[in-house]
Structures are given as structure tokens and as C-alpha cells.
């Protein structure tokens, strides 16, 4: 009889714990809808703490950490618990983010195994780019396994780009260009004395710049790149080009500009080209 009472008491406590965890998950979901990521993280963490065996709570915390906060390494314990306690088939999202988490932690064999599992799932047309992404990650993992024991300092060296490039304005997306003789990068620096700050992000207008790269590591003063050819006929272009990549044996610079927004709120871009 005592054993029966003990079993009933444990069942009641378990139900209460699960209910509390589910309540926190719901609150976290509401915070996500409102765009409050910090509050969502707090609630999801409370949910997984209240019931560490809850597949739903661990899934929410794991996917938030990996996909939204871009911290797949921290997401791994939650993703592993979610897969362990899940009823039925594991979600494709969990398998993919498990792969990302293992890769982030340097556990490349496990990462490859999960990427290969994720590749077996069918994807919708609008998610067709995910398969090439996973195949590329598998190649990266295989490369890391082949070269992981080689000290990085034997391959790479670091150079401070100097004050001409590094300013108090945001500089980003640098690309080695022109067979190693130049660097192309985006920046929101001030180009003209009368240029005003953009009120949408409190920076100057974004542009693409090119600067020389000397063998000594010294940098020339960056020059603004003029994109003179558009791949598409467009309306008047905004002055906000964004660097995409270097192509054509490092002789062409590709960029894009937002020209308008459609009825669904999607950006309509124009592809731009500048030749070296």
C-alpha cells in the first residue's frame, strides 16, 4: 500500500512539473512572436530547468540557441535531450541543428553523420538551397578532420588593416581582390562633407570600397567603387550597394542594391557589376 501511495505521489508531482514547463514554453513562444528574443530565452531556459526531460522545452531552447542566436555549440545539450526524450520521429530541424552543433564543437564525425541523415529528408522548393549548404558543411568537416592536427599559425598570418580601413564607422565583409593586391569591403563611412547620417540606423550610407594591399601589410586610402553596369533594367537605384563576391579570376566585383519592396515586404534587388 505504501508503495502504491508513493507511486501516485510521484505521478502527481511529475504532472505538476510538466504543466509548469509547458506554461513556460507557451510564454516563450509568445515572446518570440513579439520579437523579444531575450525574454523567450529566459522562459525556454526556465522550462528546460523545470523539466529537463521535456522534449518540447529542450527543443525550443536548442533551436533558439542554434538558429536565432547563432550559437549552435551552446544548443547541443538541449538538442541532445530533445532527441532523447522525443516521442516518435525526430524533427528534421533538430537533426540539422544537431549536425551544426557537433560541427561547432569540433565533433566532425558525428556532425557528418547527422548532416547525412538530414540530407535524406525531402525539402520544399523554397528550401532547396539547404541541401548544397549541408553538402558544403560535410566537405568542411572532412577537411577539418584531414587538417585538424596542423597548427594554424603555419598557414595564416594576421595584419591590422590600419586606420585607413579601420575607422569608427562600421567596416565589414572584407574580400581579398585583384590577385592579392587589393582589399574590397563594405563601409558606412562619411564620403562627403555634407553627407548626413541615415536616421534608420544612425550611420552614413553604406558603400563598397577598394584599397591597395602592399606586401609589407600597409594599406592605401580606400577609394569608392562606382558600379556602372546593372544586370537588370530598374527604376532609380538607391545608393546602398552591398558586396556579394569577387568573380571572374578576381577581376570582377559583384554587388546588389535594394531598389524597392514588393507587397509582401520582400526586398527587390538589382545585381551590379564593376570591373577592375
Describe what this molecule looks like in 3D.
The protein has seven helices and eight strands. Helix content is 42%, strand content 18%. The chain is an alpha+beta fold. 26% of the residues are buried. The chain has two domains: 133 residues, Tetratricopeptide repeat domain (Serine Threonine Protein Phosphatase 5, Tetratricopeptide repeat, Alpha Horseshoe), CATH 1.25.40.10; 105 residues, no CATH class. The strands form two sheets. A four-stranded antiparallel beta sheet has the order 1-2-3-4, with no helix packed on it.
Compute the average pLDDT.
Answer: 72
Q: How many domains, as an integer?
A: 2
What is the CATH fold-level name of the largest domain? Serine Threonine Protein Phosphatase 5, Tetratricopeptide repeat
How would a textbook summarize the main sheet?
4 strands, antiparallel
User: What CATH first level of the largest domain would be assigned?
Assistant: Mainly Alpha
Derived structural class = alpha+beta
Going across the biggest sheet, name each strand in turn. Answer: 1-2-3-4
Counting DSSP H or I runs of 4 or more residues, the number of helices is 7
For CATH, the homologous superfamily of the largest domain is named as Tetratricopeptide repeat domain
> Terminal Cα separation, in Å?
86 Å
How much of the polypeptide forms β-strand, as a percent range? 15-25%
Q: How many strands in all?
A: 8
Helix amount? 40-55%
SSE string, helices as H and strands as E:
HHHHHHHEEEEEEEE
CATH architecture of the largest domain: Alpha Horseshoe
General shape: extended
From the alpha-carbon coordinates, what is the Rg to the nearest angstrom?
Answer: 25 Å
Low-confidence stretches: 1-17, 229-239
Amino acid at each position: 500500500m505504501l508503495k502504491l501511495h508513493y507511486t501516485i505521489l510521484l505521478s502527481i508531482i511529475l504532472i505538476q512539473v510538466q504543466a509548469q514547463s509547458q506554461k513556460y514554453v507557451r510564454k516563450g513562444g509568445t515572446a518570440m512572436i513579439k520579437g523579444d528574443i531575450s525574454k523567450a530565452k529566459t522562459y525556454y531556459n526556465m522550462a528546460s530547468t523545470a523539466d529537463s526531460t521535456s522534449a518540447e522545452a529542450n527543443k525550443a531552447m536548442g533551436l533558439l540557441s542554434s538558429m536565432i542566436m547563432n550559437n549552435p555549440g551552446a544548443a547541443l545539450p538541449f538538442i541532445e535531450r530533445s532527441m532523447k526524450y522525443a516521442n516518435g520521429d525526430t524533427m528534421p530541424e533538430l537533426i540539422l541543428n544537431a549536425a551544426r552543433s557537433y560541427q561547432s564543437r569540433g565533433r566532425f564525425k558525428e556532425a557528418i553523420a547527422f548532416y547525412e541523415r538530414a540530407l535524406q529528408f525531402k525539402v520544399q522548393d523554397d528550401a532547396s538551397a539547404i541541401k548544397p549548404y549541408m553538402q558544403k558543411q560535410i566537405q568542411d568537416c572532412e577537411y577539418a578532420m584531414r587538417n585538424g592536427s596542423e597548427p594554424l599559425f603555419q598557414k595564416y598570418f594576421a595584419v591590422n588593416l590600419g586606420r585607413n580601413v579601420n575607422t569608427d564607422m562600421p567596416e565589414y565583409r572584407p574580400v581579398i581582390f585583384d590577385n592579392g593586391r587589393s582589399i574590397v569591403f563594405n563601409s558606412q563611412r562619411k564620403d562627403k562633407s555634407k553627407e548626413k547620417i541615415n536616421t534608420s540606423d544612425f550611420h552614413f550610407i553604406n558603400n563598397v570600397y577598394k584599397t591597395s594591399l602592399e606586401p609589407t601589410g600597409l594599406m592605401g586610402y580606400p577609394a569608392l567603387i562606382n558600379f556602372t553596369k546593372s544586370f537588370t533594367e530598374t527604376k532609380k537605384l538607391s545608393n546602398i550597394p552591398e558586396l556579394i563576391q569577387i568573380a571572374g579570376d578576381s577581376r570582377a566585383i559583384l554587388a546588389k542594391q535594394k531598389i524597392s519592396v514588393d507587397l509582401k515586404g520582400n526586398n527587390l534587388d538589382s545585381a551590379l557589376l564593376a570591373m577592375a
